[in-house]
Design brief:
128 residues, mainly alpha
Length: 128
């Protein structure tokens, strides 16, 4: 999904998705304790990046849905699309601080997406 960077709620969508990703990454880390197909360190890294990204965004209006589900490639792709939208929003921002915050959130969202992808089992497309 590539959200429209002109939408005023890109930051809200990103904040919600990042909170969902952090929760999903913790589920993956717990799953990795019992199933060595998952990469626990990558999952914890993803949770850390997702949490850090939210520091640069306004709090989401609502709690994330599906926070107890494991990460999948749809979530990874969604994060990457939101990162692109945040970067575009930052490029259009006249305020230097908002520009920096949006670029930082995008950077950490991309890192979270990459770490989540790496935490998934090989048969799901992860690095393994």
């Amino acid at each position: 999904m590539n959200p429209n960077p002109n939408q005023p709620d890109v930051e809200q969508a990103a904040a919600t998705a990042l909170r969902t990703a952090a929760a999903a990454a913790h589920v993956l880390a717990d799953l990795a304790v019992r199933d060595d197909r998952y990469d626990q360190l990558a999952a914890l890294t993803a949770a850390s990046y997702a949490t850090e990204a939210t520091i640069y965004l306004p709090l989401p209006d609502r709690d994330p849905e599906g926070g107890d589900r494991p990460a999948d490639h749809d979530l990874v792709d969604h994060l990457a699309g939101l990162a692109d939208a945040l970067d575009e929003l930052a490029r259009r921002s006249p305020d230097v601080r908002r520009m920096r915050d949006r670029h930082m959130a995008a950077l950490h969202a991309r890192d979270a997406a990459a770490a989540l992808r790496d935490a998934l089992p090989v048969e799901q497309g992860g690095a393994g």
